[in-house]
């Protein structure tokens, strides 16, 4: 599947809840380094401050990010991901780490009305447990959800 195939049928609907996933270039585990993971978390936090209600839950894994968002007025999925990837790449490429951070594509899935958003958030933040990184969600530092 090519990058352009991922964009086919992509629609940005204001108020719609989306699960977004993006991976690092060549699946490099940038965020196994806690400071790098914190830099990405700060970008998510800053974007959420600029668009109240945007960020519902997120988790930064070693080589990818899952983010549950409710799309606000004035943003498309593409513009949100460009801002996120651009700002986080700048934060990570401060002259010491270098290199391409993100793969060019991202995956989005619109949640249906009947989907339980909190259940989706719980599933998302449990990724480190399912990956065997930690034994319980509370032991992993790089996640957040609005329901805390």
From TrEMBL:
It comes from the Bacteria. Coiled coil: none annotated. Residues 13-127 form the Transposase IS200-like domain. It holds the Pfam family Y1_Tnp. NCBIfam families: REP_Tyr_transpos. PANTHER family: REP-ASSOCIATED TYROSINE TRANSPOSASE (PTHR36966). This is Transposase.
């Amino acid at each position: 599947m090519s990058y352009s195939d991922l964009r086919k049928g992509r629609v940005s609907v204001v108020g719609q809840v989306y699960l977004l996933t993006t991976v690092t270039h060549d699946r490099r585990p940038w965020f196994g380094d806690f400071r790098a993971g914190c830099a990405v978390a700060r970008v998510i936090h800053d974007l959420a401050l600029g668009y109240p209600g945007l960020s519902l839950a997120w988790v930064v894994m070693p080589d990818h990010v899952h983010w549950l968002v409710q799309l606000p007025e004035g943003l498309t999925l593409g513009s949100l991901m460009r801002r996120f990837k651009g700002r986080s790449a700048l934060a990570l490429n401060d002259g010491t780490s270098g290199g391409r951070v993100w793969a060019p594509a991202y995956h989005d899935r619109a949640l249906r009305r009947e989907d339980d958003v909190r259940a989706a958030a719980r599933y998302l933040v449990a990724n480190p447990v399912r990956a065997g990184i930690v034994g319980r969600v509370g032991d992993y530092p790089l996640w957040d959800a609005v329901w805390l």
